[in-house]
Design brief:
The protein is 56% helix and 2% strand. The protein has 204 residues and is mostly helical. α6 runs antiparallel to α7.
Length: 204
Amino acid sequence: MGKTAPVTSRRALLRALTATPIAVSTAVVSPWGEALADLHKRYGDSPATLVRTKEGRSLSRFRYHNAESFLPDREPGLNRDWHQFLYRAGIAAQLGLSSHLLDVGFPDGWCARHIGLRVAKSLAYANVTGLGHDCPDMTRLAMVLTPYWKWNQPRLFGEPEPDDGGFTVDEVRPLLRALLDRVHDVTGHRRPNGWRREHRDARS
């Protein structure tokens, strides 16, 4: 019986990314290399060089905390403004996903150039680099939120509305909560100050 190849833990891989830049190209250079190369090819993106730094980790934590602050359930009045609710949902989702991407070493400039406000693309890159949030409903919602600026645009008379996928407020809220909880778990970032009280108040 042959020996089973050892599974590289996410923690061990991130330590390696901190020490040595990983250039993602057509060559398989890490457990994520092949999947990343496939995404680069699918989207026509230039290769990313993953390098974990203290600055990136700090920015990652800042983005996660901002994601929590942008959750639309913090403003009950948004329930009556569906477009603004989805706009805030898109911001929260993208900030959370950005937190993960920065944590694993994606350069912020690369993300701005190649991902921008496309939540679905951000989710795809996050999932192939260890986020592991393979939720079909979140994937569908990410498409609805891509690009999220469309939910904040004025509509001319007769102009069709963007497709909301048939989602409701009560469906979107737990999907966003689950996404940010996953980002919190995977990155290990502490919750924002006052999170427990605010989270309890939002559920009451």
